[in-house]
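Handoff note, outgoing to incoming analyst
You'll be picking up this chain. Sequence as last confirmed:
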Amino acid sequence: MLHFFIRNGISFHEKSKKQGIKKLNVAYNIYGHERGVIIKKILKLWIVALVMFTIFFTSTKVNVHASGWGFKRNGEHQVPEIGKYQSIIEGTNSYYVGSKDSVYLTFDAGYDNGMMEEILNTLKLKNVKATFFLTGDFVKRFPELTKRIVNEGHIACNHSYRHRKITTLSKEELANDLGKLEKSFYELTKQEMPKYFRPPEGNFDKASLTNLKNLGYTTVFWSIAYVDWKTNKQSGADYCVKTIMDNLHDGAIILMHSVSSSNKEALPRLIDEIKNKGYTFKTVLDL
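Most recent structure output, in case you need it:
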């Protein structure tokens, strides 16, 4: 402000100028001191935040080491390679492939959008038994479909009650979640749910698979799959059949989502082509 007045030709009494300059200096010193204090506080907060961030991401083992199931397709009708996952699943009672001359149709069912009934109709018509991995929401919202799966000889297994990533759950939390689904299933069907489990989103680590084994479960992954769960972006029946048949192999565990219109439309032809290759359809109980 002092400079402003000088630039505009305003004169001051010498004493007034000295007093004004003194006041400005005092104000500047106070402002500078406060600014320094503020900067120090900001630096301290930033350092604390950085330390907390580092502690969280280095101590939360389940997040750092969690994996999503995957494999390498070969197009040569051979069992796909699973690379680093082989050592993780070893000793955990986990499967991604079955026996020779066999194929396993498995469906993940978190909800229904009208496709399940036709899928079941096709399986009945073709006399094929499949495995369905159900969530708690499916059993609760679609009791008649759940009972039909059981009554027609298919195998209904555990896909968790709340569809949570198992790597985020303690052993106790995991047991409670799976047990809640099994209780709901039994109350509805009066049958025990077989202890076969498929991890939601294929998410797992060594610790979670070990917890499942210790709880008495067999974990079932897959060796053939494609992006079929996006209901508003379906690839079509031809793509479904070609993708599966191009990668079919002994013991193939095929993952399909029951909400897919492509799967529903492709299923009759897919079953016929797999049978024509000499394969026998089995369920996870045969693993």
